[in-house]
Design brief:
Blueprint (H helix, E strand, L loop, with lengths): L5 E2 L11 E2 L18 H28 L5 H34 L3
Antiparallel strand pairs: 1-2
Helix pairs in contact: 1-2
């Protein structure tokens, strides 16, 4: 049974991603013999994307405050995306710190 990924329309200014849940085989994270993608570069890429989302929300907030934004829902969507991404990043960081502390408590 094949599960097809969800399809969403491309919204202006949101980016080119229209599928959720699909990972191309070339970008999939593999074991030690996998592609050149390292965990550190994945983390940095995620932080760059978070920064992009927050920058976009900030720019739309300025446009809304100055009256230059035609559709206020663009700002609310961008602010919600940035908020969810920030919450996810903080949760991941907290879990990583907990895991590190647990490893440090292990006896060798």
């Amino acid at each position: 049974m094949e599960i097809t990924p969800l399809q969403f329309p491309t919204l202006p200014g949101i980016g080119g991603t229209t599928e959720i849940g699909s990972v191309a085989p070339s970008t999939a994270v593999k074991g030690p013999t996998g592609p050149d993608t390292e965990f550190g570069s994945l983390v940095l890429d995620g932080l760059d994307r978070l920064e992009g989302l927050t920058d976009k929300a900030d720019n739309l907030a300025v446009q809304a405050a100055t009256g230059k934004l035609e559709n206020i829902h663009d700002y609310t969507i961008a602010a919600s995306e940035a908020s969810v991404a920030s919450q996810l990043t903080v949760s991941l960081r907290n879990r990583a710190v907990e895991a590190f502390n647990e490893i440090m408590r292990m006896q060798v």
